[in-house]
Amino acid sequence: MAETNERIPPQAIEAEQSVLGSILQNTEALHVGMEMLKDDYFYLPKHRKIFAAIRKVYEDSNAIDLLTVPDELFKRGQLDEVGGRRYLMDLTDTVVNFDNIEDHARIVIEAAVKNHLINDCSHIISRCYDPGNNADDLLDYAERKIFAIKEDSLKGDFVALRNILPQTFEQIEEYAKREGHVTGLSTGYPDLDSLTAGFQKSDLIIIAGRPSMGKAQPLDAKVLMCDGRWKEMGLLCVGDELASVDGRRSQVVGIYPQGARQVYRMIFADGRATECCAEHLWRIRYRSWTEPRILTTAQLMELLLRKRYRNRLWIEPFVGEFGSDEHLSLDPWLLGVLLGDGSLSGTSLRFSTAEPTMLPRMEQAVGVEMGVTPAGGYDYRIIQREGAHRKGTQGVSANPVTAMLREMGLWGHSAETKFIPTAYLSASREARTQLLAGLLDSDGWVEKFGSLRFATCSSQLAKDVVDLTRSLGGTASFCPKSTSYSYQRRKRSGQTSYVCNIQLPDPTILQLVKHKKDRLNARQRKRRLNIKAITATRIVKTQCIAVSHPSHLYVTDDYIVTHNTAFALNIAENVAVNRGIPVIIFSLEMAKEQLAQRLLCSRARISSHQMRTGRIADHQWTNLSIAVGPLSEAPIFLDDSATLTVMEIRAKARRMKLKYDIGLILLDYIQLVRGQKNPESRQQEITYISQSLKALARELKVPVVALSQLSRQVEQRGVKARPQLSDLRESGALEQDADVVLFIHRERDDDGSLGPVAEIIIGKQRNGPTGVITLHFVKDYARFELTDIFRGSPYPGETP
After folding, report:
1. CB of 77 closer than 8 Å to CB of 9
2. Residues 367 and 494 in one domain
3. What is the rounded end-to-end Cα distance, in angstroms, of the chain?
4. Domain residue limits at 269
5. Distance CA 668, CA 673 (A)
6. 364 Cβ partners below 8 Å, 6+ apart?
7. Segment (H or E) for 571
8. Which tens digit of pLDDT belongs to each residue from 237-293?
9. Same structural domain for residues 604 and 733?
10. Which of 454, 474, 571, 627 supports an S-S bond with 603, CB 3.0-4.6 Å?
11. Distance (Å, whole) CA 465 – CA 450
12. Angle at 252 between CA 745 and CA 421, to 5 degrees
């Protein structure tokens, strides 16, 4: 510690003397010094006082020399403190060459930056030791301090209005000289620019519209939670923890009612099914596609009309990582054996097996107080080692395993009414795997081609086994099979048997008995979850959810994996492509590949559906070639992180501002951003996010465009109702903090679909008028066009 205290702070005394000496003698050096330096850049206090006096004389438009500066110091009572007139004369003697003023000033600045770093880091360290400070807040504070030093924008005190007015007047004169009177970033839409004068630096602009795609499921659709429970879509809440496609953490971050809609039942190859609307998104694979594609239900219906796609489109696999073992009382493998070939009624607990290697495992599963004894043939009993009648115990001691089965509601059931308790279907993946292994060890078999089969006379147990297999990421189905037997030389009908066909991605995880495990080594055919049919079912209220998982996937009915902004992108394209101004886009909803595809389709004027399905005409390839050049050269930077916090957005924006001098920030969309940890309410969190984005716009001096969604109050007011400021979803802070609020409104046609005419409503403008402009929305290209030219095309081969 002593060594640290003896360190000498960074300083450049000689450079400071040279700079001050040059300023006192040379006018050009004076201008350079006034431009590059500040009072607190100087290490010695007397040098700070001398430079402050020089600045005051300079601001008063008086000459800078060895008479005026000492006189100013004398007025301040500081002349003797700095060493008197003699020291000022000595400063002029240190100058060798006035031309070196910039180099010497940089030396002073470098030492000052190091000192500022030392001081700020000391403050940061001190705050870190305070247990009351949050880690995220500390990181943000540290980055803000460092960024302030780098940008040379350390905050000062109040500034007198008289000092700002001359600069403001010059800016007004500059505005008047500009052609077109657009003083900010042009949006590419002249009518909008006329009302707003473009997007201004330091402004927060909110662009709001109703949820664009209506990616919805019925309110009674089931969604799988992380603890293995199923919850109806209509009962979900923001913050609910969901099961995910790969076991990673996933939360509901947005809930958007969609009203009554036509829904369709999607049926898959193994019989499972779910319902969704025509615009619902799916992550689909096909054998010739190198990457999965995001398609709507309507697009899938169209593809299934073509023979090449029938029964050849499939959805993402599901690993089955969810659930809790908190409520499991009995070993899962033991329960599987008893459900498969056990007797759950009568005076004793029995099971049957012809596989002697199962007995040691049964002994281990029942516990040290229990035992397994032969009961004749292939039958065995599970008994208490010390017997049911124990010395010193009155009455009969209950069999613990029987007691557990009774508690689960299984004891007393016949073979026809067996079932798997809910707690085991929602248990951890390991427990569910052991349960299935027990079922297959007792009453299952492996076909010569490696397929797994399980038979039972309980239809409910067959359904549960299918459900269990699907929960592990496998495919399964069952079918009834008539049985018969001979008695007194007459063939008689037996009980109906239900045979389950089971396929798992990796069946070796089951660790079955040896002879069954050996047959699993045979080559197996991997069964995909192909889409079999899509049919219209009903018109019902629906809802869309947004999830935090990077893939935007969640798990719905029967363990089906399913998915969960054109005007702003058009503006970003105009700013970056047409003006060459760097733009960053934070996309929390769409993947960067989807954004790139949407930008390319919009600029090339090609239907996104045509591009995804590969049906591109010859002349459209020319359009693509023309469009890809400007886009590839445009300074557009994409970030598709799905769970960004507002602090992370600010950190990334600061770094991009330093590296590329970003001119526009686009955020899609604000309701998916996470704010403070453990906020008291969602409204409070949105308020924090809104204020932080406004602070970011002011700090970086760039317009920040944040997309927002409207509440459903607009539709409740009637078909012709237009959005207003109170319709901004979740918080009034958006209205308060925003400098400009734009609403996108499209009226519905007679058939209920949205019409092509789009009104851009300026609902608020802090420094300008409100109003409405009209554009034409070209749905196929996801592009907003001027109403008088939207039919045209800048590309060869297309006709209006």
Report:
1. no
2. yes
3. 78
4. 217-317+529-563
5. 9
6. none
7. helix 566-573
8. 878 888 887 777 788 876 767 778 888 999 988 888 888 888 787 888 888 887 777
9. yes
10. 627
11. 18
12. 135
